[in-house]
Amino acid sequence: MNDGTLQKRCAGVLLHITSLPNRDLGADAYRFVDFLAQSGMSLWQILPLGPTQGNLSPYQCLSAHAGNPKLISLQNLANEPWFNFKQSTSSRNRRKILKLAYQVANQDKKIQQNFLSFCNEHAFWLEDYAIFSTLLEIHGNKPWFKWPKRLRNRDIKYLKEIKLEFTDRINQFCFEQFIFFQQWLKLKAYANQNGIFIIGDMPIFIAHNCVDVWAHPEYFTLDQDGQLTSVAGVPPDSFSKMGQRWGNPLYCWDKMEADGFQWWIQRMGTQFKLYDIVRVDHFRGFESYWEIPAAYRTAMKGHWVTAPGEALFTALKSYYGTLPIIAEDLGYITPEVETLRDQFYLPGMRILQFAFDGNPNNSYLPANHIENCAVYTGTHDNDTTLGWFNSLSKKKQQTIYKYLGDSKKSMPWDLIQSGLNSIAQYIVIPMQDILELGSEGRMNVPGTIRGNWRWYFNWQQIKSGLQEKLYGLLANSNRL
What we know:
By secondary structure, the protein is an alpha/beta fold. The protein has a single domain (10-476), classed as TIM Barrel (Alpha-Beta Barrel), CATH 3.20.20.80. Helix content is 38%, strand content 12%. The chain has an eight-stranded parallel sheet. Strands 5-4-7-8 form a four-stranded antiparallel sheet, with no helix packed on it. It is globular and about 70 Å long.
């Protein structure tokens, strides 16, 4: 974010695509951009856009590069001049409509040319992804490490046979990525034209059951059968007393460093194409990470291992010139992590819900903020501000109100106002807080797998005058 893109105080909203009323890249997404612009906002932060698995977590995707086909707006697709589909675009017909669109596109020379160009541009990941997705279907969505050995180990001769036998299905998966990227980049362009920059989210680790691990097992902590030897997680912290065992494979950093971090250069290239700014989740893992032996079911028995973060970010900076990145520096942060963050002038994060523990030196307290950071009332892993506040004792609530110096006692707006007044250059507010929602609006509870990632709002929840209220608050805090 030191590249001149955003060199002023500004504000934004955190809302994932699946939290829009229609939960796709269609009309509601464009309407939300209009809402942001009318409110004086400059930022729209979303969660990862990749194809999700059974638990719907956008942090456990099937690919580090692909978009989620379920986010494709069928209505926008049906309105394309080359398709002009007149029937129902109900999501129940998603597979049928996408398949028909592919067949129609094959008859249009211009679309064919654009599709071929897209395939060539993304060749370093696209075919692997399409083959992987096809094989997942063939094997009833069994993870790749439970496939027959010759597929698990990517036997070249057998893969050629698969490509010949399932050519249409493989091309269909490629085509869906073509449509996704078209729709997403069109939406991003619309946002940019309206003064809205997109903050995307990139997990530091990727899922075990994803194409990138299957295609490049040498980069990950696997045995010869594709099984994990160690996994990622975090030790006990404010989110979880037992720590968190994420279960993701860890990186073989020595092999990645040996080839100049090409895997990371390609991965970041996709992120920079999709987003204006990338929030890197679990940034501290680039300095050192919590390694848990795969045999252990909890995160309690892990240990810290040093990572080559300085070498990696030096390589990325050398390749891309500027690094429009926000470092998610939450959890157990050491001086070494702070040094790595500051060496590359990356904004960190300040979470207001973490501020009020009675310690006057707490870095999350507004009085202790610095300019080069992004302040949040809460993240997708927190309860809503109102839900969080209502869970506190009356004594703790009074302490917070006393610190905020607001006699109105109006949550969540008191906390939002505190963030707006902060010296921090950026503030991002979850949409749930703007809508004054309680815990019913929570997006995710870390360490749990059921009921998460399902929240979405409806336009009736937007109170009359809300845009004007937000615009006034941003004007008064010099964030327009």
